[in-house]
Amino acid sequence: MTITDLEAIPIEVRFSPRSEDGGLGSYARQDSSRSVQPRVLLRLETDDGVTGWGEMLPTMGSVDVVRSVFEKLIAPYVVGREVWEIEAFLQAIDRNSFTLAYYNANVQTFVAGVEMAMWDAWGKHLGEPVHRLLGGKYIDEVPFAFALGVVDIEESRRIARQAAENGFEVLKTKAGRDWRFDVERIRAMHDAVDGELEFRLDPNQGYSFEDAVRVGARLEDAEIYLQYLEQPVRVDSFGTLKRLRQRLTTPIAVNEDLYYPHNMLHLAREDAVDVGVVELLSMGGILRLKRQVGVASALGISLSHHSGRDLGIKTAAILQTVATTPAIALPPDTVYYAWADAVIESPFEFDDGRLSVPDDPGLGVTVDTEAIERHRVEEYRSEPTADPE
Known about the structure:
Residues 153-251 form the Mandelate racemase/muconate lactonizing enzyme C-terminal domain. This is N-acylamino acid racemase. The chain has 389 residues and is of the alpha/beta class. The chain is 36% helix and 17% strand. It has 13 helices and 13 strands. It has helices spanning 63-74, 86-95, 97-100, 104-126, 130-133, 153-165, 179-192, 209-221, 238-247, 263-269, 286-298, 312-322, 369-375; strands at 3-14, 36-46, 51-56, 141-143, 145-148, 170-174, 198-202, 228-230, 252-254, 275-278, 302-305, 333-334, 354-356.
């Protein structure tokens, strides 16, 4: 079953406005021109007619750059290979890491997108869902954490109530512009739901050590204990993270730090982290993610999964992965509920903040090719499209 062709398909999909119940636009701002999100879908063809699909972020900007990197740096290691040769594909990339290392995590998203499509095609060929190829699922449903960008206090209260009413038990929110405002928002949301939600706070490396201590201490004094404070300081600040753990009761999590292959082990050795927020794209795919999860689990680090504002293909891959990885015990983040349109024929539907793990062959979803053509673009919009991830 030989891979005969690969295609990178650039698309843009719009978030629903926050005024719609259940479609609050999450990270996207209210300006409709900025609620459009760019994505790249990867279509893998085989000589027996099976098509596999992957999904990734356009991490290198323009459509032309994305296509060039995909066609010239990644595709030569894939086309002509058997679809089940996933490990061999990853090893071939690693052997040429001198060339690819300059692109680091950006190239890893391409690798992960291709790996995702290979799993999808191989599962379809065998007539089995990916979770059976990964050892079998141990759960049928995955609980998710509701994710929110930086909005004002009243909007935060309303959205927190909406999340709780829809059955979510955890809400993650972005932060980092003003630590006092961040504390006020968490307290307002906590009060709005009478303590029924747990909270995660993610300033995307935006705090100084001193501000991170202030945020954690203020919330602890108010008897609001975050599930975790995610990546509060710059990456590779292992000493700072360790000092934060010594100063606060609040668990300290990392995300961007884990985009570098050996950081999980270094963080654990430094006793610098409580939680790892893994990301299958930036880690280079499902197999590489599972290796890092094994390191974290053996060293007593709790785990969740990041949200990259994922469409249905990657959401399916996350479900297949989490359902076969007991160590990812904390709910993954998501904004899937906020999309105005879908790229799969039967979009996922949340039930009390949970999604069912697909049992159909491959990733378990059928791609809507007509929808993809509607969303296909030749160039991405130049203005910023959303708050940071």
